[in-house]
Amino acid sequence: MLSAMPVQESSEKQEEPTRGNHGNISFQASAISAFLVLFSFMLVLLGVEYANLYSSHDNLSNYKGSGVVYPPVVLLISGLCMLCMGLGGLTLGITAVLLNVKSKGFTIFVLSLQGVFGIFTLAAMMFGTWAFEAKLYSSNPSVVKFEMMCMLYMIANGTALLSGQFCLTLHFYKQDFKKEPTEAFSNAVLRGLVVFYSFLVLLKGCSEMAIAVLMREASVPVTTAAPFFVSRRDLVLADGVFTMLLGLYGIVVGAAGLFQQKALFVVLHIFSFVFQLALYDLAQYGDFPVGVLSTQLLKFSLKLQGVETACWTAAVLLIPAYFAAMMDDPSVL
Questions:
Q1: What are phi and psi of 88, to 5 degrees?
Q2: Model pTM score
Q3: What is the pLDDT along the chain (333 residues), one digit of tens a residue?
Q4: What share of the chain is helix, strand, coil (3-state, %, to 5)?
Q5: Cis, bond preceding 227 (omega within 30 deg of 0)
Q6: Domain match, 61 and 172 both
Q7: Which residues contact 23 (CB under 8 A, 6 or more apart)?
């Protein structure tokens, strides 16, 4: 006679994966770390570039600058600040992904570093440089307008990269060292971040449109004045219009709290990134008329500008997509 045998629960029952700082690193933490590594690597590239440019003998011999030269030492320090910020973020992200090692104290230190160095770099490089140039050419209204548009362009890009890395590090900290990691940012904060970074996209687009219009009004076919190396101003105008519309779309999504926009939002911003690289790095930088790039310095600057454009563009377009995706589904990103 068969007797009912009690069914024993398997001791090998698998536990559901957890989030936060329990067990293996979660998908959410991996996404944060991946974006943090990306933004930090871009800062390392830009930091090395500026440190090399402004540590040359010619620049250091006149490190204080003059009435017609912005102090090279300020730009050198800004480059070193970006390098330090990038290395700190890289260390956080890589050790978290590869070693699952996270330190609360070191994370707070990196956050503090990013805050102080980021504010200095934004003030010295994004504001100071172009304000100095505008004052230098104050007798020429057309040049002043051009320099102010350059400043707006760099403020949009620089703020997106510097503050974006800070926000990602803050999210990294809240994800791993707070009791409620999935509520690291409230919905209201996420909507505000989407609006803020979309406004930077709008500002970038408006400055590009203005540059193209100013060049047309002045009958200037090309320019080699950084940060704009323009050989086809119509392409800059087209890129500015598209970027402006993308920024307006992001502002509407964030302000109205429109959900279920993640896929469209991300696809549009990735397309815009590829579109802008095509219109700048590919369609223009290799198509300057013969004789325009008359010196080796200009040719070298053009190559560097291609790297800069890729970094700035990636930062200003990817960070609003990140927060829009998180606003749409906090449990995934």
A1: -65, -45
A2: 0.83
A3: 444 444 444 444 444 444 444 333 466 667 788 999 999 999 999 999 888 877 765 655 666 666 677 888 888 899 999 999 999 999 999 998 888 888 889 999 999 999 999 999 999 988 888 888 878 887 888 788 888 888 899 899 999 999 999 999 998 888 777 655 445 678 888 899 999 999 999 999 999 898 888 888 777 666 666 677 677 778 888 888 999 999 999 999 999 888 778 889 999 999 999 988 887 766 666 666 555 555 555 666 666 777 888 899 999 999 999 998 888 765 544
A4: 70, 0, 25
A5: yes
A6: yes
A7: 17
309: CB partners within 8 A, 6+ apart: 227, 276, 277, 280, 281
State whether 168 and 197 are in the same domain: no
Tell me the C-alpha distance between 86 and 261, whole Å.
Answer: 31
Backbone angles phi, psi at 230, to 5 degrees: -115, 120
Q: Per this entry, what is the length of the chain?
A: 333
Asked whether residue 126 falls in the same domain as residue 255, the answer is no
Put residue 103 in one of left, alpha, beta given phi > 0 → left and psi -120 to 50 → alpha. Answer: beta
* Nearest-angstrom CA–CA distance, 316 and 329: 21
Question: Contact, 168 vs 111, CB < 8 A?
Answer: no
One-letter amino acid of 161: L
3-state secondary structure of 109: helix
Spatial distance between the Cα atoms of 139 and 141, rounded to a whole number of angstroms: 6
Contact present, 232 and 287 (Cβ < 8 Å): yes
Q: Residue 308 sits in which domain range? A: 186-333
In a domain, 78, yes or no: yes
